[in-house]
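Quick one before lunch.
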Amino acid sequence: MNDPTALLEATQAFVQAKHGSDSSGHDWWHVDRVRRMALRLAAAEGADPMTVELAALLHDIADWKFHDGNAEIGPEAARQWLVSQQADAALIQAVCEIVAGVTFKGAGVATEMPTLEGKCVQDADRLDAIGAIGIGRAFAFGGAFGRAMYDPEISAQHHEDFTAYQKKSGPTLNHFPEKLFLLKDRLQTATAHRIAEGRHRFLEEFYERFLAEWRGDDMAEFLEC
Ligand code: ADP
Ligand code: NI
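Model of the adenosine-5'-diphosphate complex:
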């Protein structure tokens, strides 16, 4: 299929059907937000919008978190779909490389994207993991995967490699230092850096307030003990 509008529409319908029933923060609206943010970044940075939009639509089509840690399935599913639509070979290659590289792999693992289009998609995905929506998604993920919200006896970890990161099963609040606080400084476009400032600050405020309420700091002025 060489008509770009028809390919985007067909891809959207395909992706919407796949993400339909998700309750872990990987629902269709996550994909739609990433697509819209990635296109804004692409316009600001001068990236190719077709590659960016297709890759954003397909970026979580078969995420390793839902496939026993297998990170090969996502790019393969994207490739099969695009081949079935007779997309241009160079476009398929560019999109599948982005789908393969987009995911976070642990604090100690570099995941820089080689192309400008990849940077826009990865930055958009990461902007959706921070701020108010990012917090909502983290707790939705934790609930869907049976994680505790917080446990003061389990400390956050520094994951040196992807395997260690994939095995983690700690409480959701640990995910903030383990991943979410790190994202701001790993964004690769200047536009995303600017957008991340406010979202990152909100993440920090939420985290501090969560722990303050847990300790009971906010009761001190009303109670004697
Ligand atoms: P990535 O592929 O980089 O992980 P996703 O679009 O799949 O990006 O987003 C991951 C989402 O799932 C984030 O919002 C993140 O907060 C959430 N998530 C992943 N792992 C955990 C976890 N162990 N605890 C809480 N949330 C998690
Ligand atoms: Ni995503």
